[in-house]
Amino acid sequence: MLDILQYEFIQNAILAGILVSIAAGIIGSLIVVNRMVFLAGGMAHTAYGGIGLAVFFGFPIFLGASLFTIAAALIISAITLKQKNNIDTIIGLIWAVGMAIGIILIDLTPGYNVDLMSYLFGSILAVSSNDILYISILLTIIIATVTLFYREILAVSYDSEYAALSGVNVKLFYTLILVLSALTVVIAIKVVGLILVIALLTIPIYIGQKISNSLAQMMILSGILSSIFTLIGLYISYSYDITSGASIILTSAVALLLYLVIEKSIKKLNEK
């Protein structure tokens, strides 16, 4: 088992997996408590528009996807801040438009055959040093932002009306949550792909939410669980030569199933 650690691409994959898992634990918790789970899938598919832009104009994929999803997050924020009930509709619209733009731009790129599988299901084993640098910078920004503005983010997430009455700039922090969510989705695509990104941002968080007593504790536990699932999934992927993203998500799903079985068993014992 330890033999595989001698390969640089495995070292990069492990480091990237842990960094993305920590980011997913933090931002996934915010997505769940803000009841914006659909946002993760919407942003992931919207990011395909940015991938198309990057391919068409010849600049880095991460940069194109990040800029595109940030723009989408700002649009979603502007439209839904006053009418959160319509957020699913807006996300669905931007999801479709983003995918369409990406597909058309890739079709128009002469001589380019994009590997759709790497974006649909992740390519963590192909993570480069530059990717790790980008992910590290983003994670640092996420941790610093959440640490500095934890009370404001907490207030906006659980009761935006009370937060506004308390003097919190709800518009600013709501937009900030959306932007950070969008960027986290972009880096998560590298690990599990745009189709499976919702699972990465919700399964570990569900378990973390059940066994935590605060948002901060939920973020920490979710990050730890996500890291564990990612590492196990990565090892299974390498050992059996299967897609890493699918392997990571199935590992998470099995862990969730085990948790639910154990939780139900404990409840039955307590009832006796």
Describe, in plain words, how this protein is organized in 3D.
It is a single chain. With 272 residues, the chain is mainly alpha-helical. The protein has one domain: Orthogonal Bundle (ABC transporter involved in vitamin B12 uptake, BtuC). Helices cover 81% and strands 0% of the residues. It is built from 13 helices and no strands. Helix 1 (8-33) runs parallel beside helix 6, helix 1 (8-33) crosses helix 11 and helix 2 packs parallel to helix 4 (87-108). It is globular and about 60 Å long. The protein starts with 7 loop residues before the first helix and ends with a helix. The model has no long low-confidence stretch (mean pLDDT 89).
How many E-type strands? 0
The CATH superfamily is known as ABC transporter involved in vitamin B12 uptake, BtuC
Order of helices and strands: HHHHHHHHHHHHH
- Spans with pLDDT under 50 lasting ≥5 residues? none
- Using only C-alpha atoms, the radius of gyration works out to 19 Å
What would you call the structural class?
mainly alpha
Distance between the ends: 44 Å
CATH topology: ABC transporter involved in vitamin B12 uptake, BtuC
Q: Helical percent range?
A: over 70%
- The CATH class is Mainly Alpha
Quick recap:
With 272 residues, the chain is mainly α. It has helices spanning 8-33, 37-57, 61-80, 87-108, 116-121, 129-148, 150-158, 160-165, 170-192, 197-200, 203-210, 215-240, 244-271.
